[in-house]
């Protein structure tokens, strides 16, 4: 059974940093592309970042480019999102999602809440 | 950037009704479109991939159609368990979601 478990969310002040983690199991993590998607409270879904299986292709949404860094450790079956210079508008539930062979997100974690507030 | 626009924003229908949600892309995306269902407090769930492919385990009352710029998600017979918000997503150029359609039971 595919499982994605996010952690690392919490309350952080504007300008602060946070590192999210996503622990994967139930599939061969090292062969799949992964992404982060976020959802602000009461709002819709927003794609944040993408990383392919070998970390050779990485993309970011314009809203986080230059502030967030996606990475992965295939030996540890883990995905990460380093978030710096956080703003109030980064407040959201952050989901990690597995990219399927049909080019959509076929499995999602339960999400971790990041709140940026003073 | 490709924009995705869903209609309606909210939909209220009776159990057993046929329900249709529309998603329009700001430019052609071929059939690079997915549909997701999200229940309150839960993660999104993939329903349809590549415009009309039914994800494994998804009930056959869900179907998708369309290509280019106009797409539809149809629920052939609305069930109480289908109460949720539905999102379309394009993956022709990066990844963009529609704003969501909330489906309620009348």
CA gyration radius of chain B, whole angstroms:
13 Å
Judging from the principal axes of the Cα atoms, what is the shape of chain A? globular
**What composes the largest sheet of chain A?**
7 strands, mixed
Which whole number gives the mean pLDDT of chain A?
97
Radius of gyration of chain A: 13 Å
Enumerate the spans of chain A where pLDDT stays under 50 for 5 or more consecutive residues.
none
Strand content of chain A: over 45%
Question: How many helices of chain A?
Answer: 0
- Proportion of helical residues of chain A: under 10%
Order of helices and strands of chain A, N to C?
Answer: EEEEEEEEEEE
What kind of sheet is the major sheet of chain B?
Answer: 7 strands, mixed
The helix tally of chain B amounts to: 0
The quaternary state of the protein chains shown equals heterodimer
Notes on the structure:
The complex is a heterodimer of chains A (118) and B (106). With 118 residues, chain A is mainly beta. Chain A has strands at residues 3-7, 10-12, 18-25, 34-39, 45-51, 58-60, 68-73, 78-83, 92-99, 105-108, 112-116. In chain A, the strands form two sheets. In chain A, strands 2, 4, 5, 6, 9, 10 and 11 form a seven-stranded mixed beta sheet that branches. A four-stranded antiparallel beta sheet of chain A has the order 1-3-8-7, with no helix packed on it. In chain A, a hairpin with a 4-residue loop joins strand 7 (68-73) and strand 8 (78-83). Chain B has strands at residues 4-7, 10-13, 19-25, 33-38, 45-49, 53-54, 62-67, 70-75, 84-90, 96-97, 101-105. In chain B, a hairpin with a 5-residue loop joins strand 9 (84-90) and strand 10 (96-97). The radius of gyration of chain B is 13 Å and the shape is globular. Chain B has no helices and eleven strands. Chain B is mainly β and 106 residues long. In chain B, strands 2, 4, 5, 6, 9, 10 and 11 form a seven-stranded mixed beta sheet that branches. Classes of the chains: A mainly beta (118), B mainly beta (106).
């Amino acid at each position: 059974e595919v499982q994605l478990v996010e952690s690392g969310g919490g309350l952080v002040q504007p300008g602060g940093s946070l590192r999210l983690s996503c622990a994967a199991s139930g599939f061969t993590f090292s062969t799949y592309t992964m992404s982060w998607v976020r959802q602000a409270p009461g709002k819709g879904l927003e794609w944040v970042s993408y990383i392919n299986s070998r970390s050779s292709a990485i993309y970011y949404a314009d809203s986080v480019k230059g502030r967030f860094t996606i990475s992965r450790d295939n030996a540890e079956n883990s995905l990460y999102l380093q978030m710096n210079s956080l703003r109030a508008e980064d407040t959201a539930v952050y989901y990690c999602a597995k990219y399927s062979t049909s080019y959509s997100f076929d499995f999602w974690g339960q999400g971790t809440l990041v709140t940026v507030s003073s | 950037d490709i924009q995705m626009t869903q209609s309606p924003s909210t939909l209220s229908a009776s159990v057993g009704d046929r329900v249709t949600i529309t998603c329009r892309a700001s430019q052609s995306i071929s059939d690079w479109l997915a549909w997701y269902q999200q229940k309150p407090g839960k993660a999104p769930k993939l329903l349809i991939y590549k415009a009309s492919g039914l994800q494994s385990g998804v009930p056959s009352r869900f179907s998708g159609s369309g290509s280019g710029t106009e797409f539809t998600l149809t629920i052939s017979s609305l069930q109480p368990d289908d109460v949720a918000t539905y999102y379309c997503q394009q993956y022709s150029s990066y990844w963009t979601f529609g704003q969501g359609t909330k489906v309620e039971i009348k």
